[in-house]
Amino acid sequence: MRLDYIVRRLVLFVIVVWAAATLNFFLPRLSGKDPIRDKLLQQAAAGGYVQAGIQQMVEEYERKFGLDKPLWVQYLTYLGDVARLDFGYSIANYPRTVMGIMADSIPWTVGLLLTTTLLAFAIGSILGALLAWRRSPRFVQYLFPPLLTLSAIPYFLLGLCLIYLFAFRLKLFPLFGGYTPGTFPALNLNFALDVFKHSLLPALSILLASLGFWALGMRGMMVTVEGEDYMTFAEAAGLKSSTLFFTYAIRNALLPQTTSLGLALGHVLSGALLVEVIFSYPGIGTTLYHAIRQFDYFLIQGIVFTIVLGVTLATLVLDLIYPLLDPRITYQRA
Amino acid sequence: MLRYMRRNRSLVVGLCLLLLVLLFAGLGRLLWDTSLAAPLSAPPNRPPSWEHPLGTDRQGRDLLAVMIVGTPLTLYIGLLAGFIGVAIGTVLALTGAYYGGVVDSVIRGVVDVGLTIPTLLVLILLAVSVRSSLSVSQMALVVASLSWLWPTRTIRSQVLSIKERAYIQVARLSGASNRQIIFFEIMPNLLPYLAATFVGAVGAAILASIGLEVIGLGPIEANTLGMTIYWVTYYAALLHGMWWWFMPPVVIIIMVFVGLFAISAGLDELANPRTRKTV
Predict the structure, then answer these.
(1) Contact residues on chain A for B243, CB-CB shorter than 8 A
(2) Is A31 helix (H, G, I), strand (E, B) or coil?
(3) pTM recorded for the entire structure
């Protein structure tokens, strides 16, 4: 059964990645005309200082995806390129490759997302557990409605309000960017502090908006767990309230929460991309925003594919970890 | 009915919030000159005053007029995309779950793969590929192209559970045809879930459309709420402290989302009497 499960997950992973590559290839060609070719030729006709690069890109593009070749040959060429993670050159910043531009921005996004998601998961789950726990202090109950309301608000709108309040009005935090303009990224304490200060508001807007989601899920699970026989038994056996809460209730309620972690990943990521745009945070979302404004098709394709790859990979890893965390899951064929 | 409404408070709160938004848009259209929503129809960058209660933006739009015109547009995108999504989802879920077999496996496979890929990214690819600036209706269609995935999954699991209930067996034994069972036995019991799914789908569609607009792929000529936020980031209104520019769309969007969220929570209670609070 176990091997069967792993194989099925791997197959799903391969299919998703293939589907993303296929969408990348066919969507621009759906409209009949080829927007990439149009953009390249337009750029070539416009001339300017990037002329040499554009000429080469047009030639390269014609060689690979020329109209003289049947569609399936072009498709196979594209799949081959993607398999080697070769997304070509950026149209707007010619000598730079798509891979190079992404390599600069991905660490920012991963850092921001990883810390906020883990924090939101931990804090949200504990809050949710307290909400359902009969013996928790009264004031916890009052937290529930605001948490729910916050979870219904898109991250970037919360970000807008936070910037205005804390950065513009109170001037507590910088208004935009990932570090103070003029400083150079370096590995020292000053720069690290600067980065930390810049990342607090974007992190806070993601954190606040996603807390409610985890709290809500955890609350539901805790209610179920509290009704279980072993809880009654443990209580009757005279165990301490804190032991009951942490080792009996939370541990069992937390496991299904990790399942939603995989499901929520894509949603959190889409929200975080827009938060980056609002804050001009130097991550992949802002890069995508600029790529769209300049219609840098190769960069857009590269970013979309890389993000899908990342999310799918993370989901796969989470899926493979679950059986180790929760022996109750047997993964039988439905 | 009234007694029930009093008990199901989140449904009431949600409906009131949405009604307020609709009232604002409806009455506004009657009482305010909406032609002021066009660029250059008012002096630019003015804070709120008697002449322009919500101020004006950088391009000389009266923001009150923009809100009055934009709110229904955003709601329209959400409703259209949500409706298409739930309609396609219901058909796929019913055929898949009821008939099973290869069709069901294919539908389930496509939904599983589709839900793994972040929706916004595919929509971005799609909108970029269309390239020529989208109209509001085209925008709704772009969003609708993926809005059926989640409804298909939830409705399918619901149909699977309804299918096994005793009254379906009875109907089949008494010789009802497949079509009769689907339309007269399953459908009526599915309706509350369809309503809840629809509300969820509308919310997701509005979120997706605003996301596309903020990242710069929206209908440039239309004054939807998301486009207003796009212009706010485009002209860095925050750095100029023009709070009157971004607060109105933010407040309206938040009211819409909280309203939809509360309604879906209320409908959930309506559909699952077991979770109902004590009478």
Answers:
(1) 164
(2) coil
(3) 0.87
Continuous H helices in chain A = 2-30, 35-46, 51-65, 71-83, 98-132, 139-151, 155-162, 189-226, 229-236, 241-243, 251-279, 284-293, 297-325
CA distance A303 to A282: 14
A287-324 burial, b at 16+ Cβ within 10 Å, e below that, comes to: bbbbbbeebbbbbbbbbbbbbbbbbbebbbebbeebbe
- What's the first-to-final CA gap in chain B, in angstroms? 14
Within the 23-82 window of chain A, which residues sit less than 8 Å (CB to CB) from chain B? 23-24, 27-28, 30-31, 35
Interface touch A23/B211, C-beta < 8 Å: no
Measured between alpha carbons, how far is B96 from B101 in angstroms, rounded to an integer? Answer: 8
Measured between beta carbons, the chain A residues lying within 8 angstroms of B258 are 149, 152-153
Along chain B (279 residues), what's the average pLDDT of each consecutive run of 10 residues? 75 92 91 83 83 85 90 94 95 87 89 86 86 82 92 90 86 86 86 89 93 88 89 85 88 93 83 55
C-alpha to C-alpha distance for A262 and B111, rounded to whole angstroms? 16
Determine how many CB atoms are found less than 10 A away from the CB of residue A135: 9
Q: What is the DSSP string of B109-178?
A: HHHHHHHHS-HHHHHHHHHHHH-SPPPHHHHHHHHHTTTTHHHHHHHHHHHHHHHTSHHHHHHHHTT--H
For residue A23, report the phi and psi dihedrals to the nearest 5 degrees.
-60, -45
In terms of Cβ atoms closer than 10 Å to its own Cβ (0-12, 13-18, 19+), residue B49 is exposed
The 10s digit of each residue's pLDDT in A43-85 is 666 655 555 666 777 777 777 766 667 778 888 888 888 888 8
* A8 at interface of B, judged by CB pairs closer than 8 A: no
- For residue A149, the tally of other CB atoms under 10 A from its CB is 15
Q: B57-89: string of b/e by CB count within 10 Å (b at 16+)?
A: bbebbbbbbbbbbbbbbbbbbbbbbbbbbbbbb
If DSSP states are collapsed to H, E and C, what string results for A287-311?
HHHHHHHCCCHHHHHHHHHHHHHHH
Cβ neighbour number for residue B238 with a 10 Å cutoff:
21
In 3-state terms, what secondary structure has residue B56? strand
C-beta atoms of B254 and A168 within 8 A: no
